[in-house]
């Protein structure tokens, strides 16, 4: 009899498994239908010995001291500030997010102050009475030309929808800057796990109270693996048998290549915003990991409508459908729904960890630890 069955061994599931096992001393079974732990952050050495991410690049960044301190229990870090360039149709490479350097290169200008850049943006911006869509966010800030150059094609490829059809939150994730700061993120803590994500997950789950079962589907073991409570980190609509219909997700296909050269591109990721190519970006892992190797491995990303669910699609009708599933989830006793797929939110890794830690605090407040209930549990289990 396990105290907890956790479905999904990504950030949400692993964080909760470790807390429940180490703090409450409870027995946890954590399962994943994939053959490994780590979820989409899983990394491994390929045939050439290069550490790469099977499901595309994962760059850790957070402003949360709590999240950073928690994960630091399980890994040492390598300082890394991610930089992204956009390759335009004419072959030029310019910084992304848009900054002063981007504007100067595109328009052959020599703006030198933040005020000058703000004035440039203001001269191009369009008045939008009510900002509702992703298109509105960008054109109201920097105008239609920069929107067409950097956002429209990329968004159409990534989401299969025009930015005018997507919630404003999508492009609001990508800032525009009036300085020369070319870092993709500006968070306080920007690091990569020194020995990789998989090694970090291995340490999180290395506890005598935790049983890890990979290559295991929940439906195959839910009746044969006795447990008292459940934590679900998979798609919420799947848990309920798609009772109200399927929640839309975007997927990705990856093409991994090892090249017989030391470097392929000047930064970790190069975006391809134009619709003249079917992919959105190419990432090169040695920039992220600091590994020294005579060869290099790159990953090209192709957005897809079908496949593993990666991104909830932020549209009003999808949010309304999720609310129906959320009502079902709230009514199920002894089941907690945690993570990007279970709560249908476009979370970063640190936000998932923060949500998992908050869920653990809720459990601490609401669920007496097993030691206080052993008599009742044993009687209920017939032991």
Automatic annotation (TrEMBL):
A Pfam family matched in the record: GLF
Top-rank lineage group of the source organism: Bacteria
Alphabetically ordered keywords of this record: FAD, Flavoprotein, Isomerase
Segments crossing the lipid bilayer: none
Family: Belongs to the UDP-galactopyranose/dTDP-fucopyranose mutase family.
Cofactors that this protein relies on: FAD
NCBIfam families in the cross-refs: UDP-GALP_mutase (TIGR00031)
Listed name of the protein: UDP-galactopyranose mutase
Enzyme nomenclature, EC number: 5.4.99.9
Keyword Electron transport set for record: no
GO molecular function: UDP-galactopyranose mutase activity
Every UDP-galactopyranose mutase C-terminal domain range: 150-346
Xref: InterPro entries: UDP-GALP_mutase, UDP-GalPyranose_mutase_C
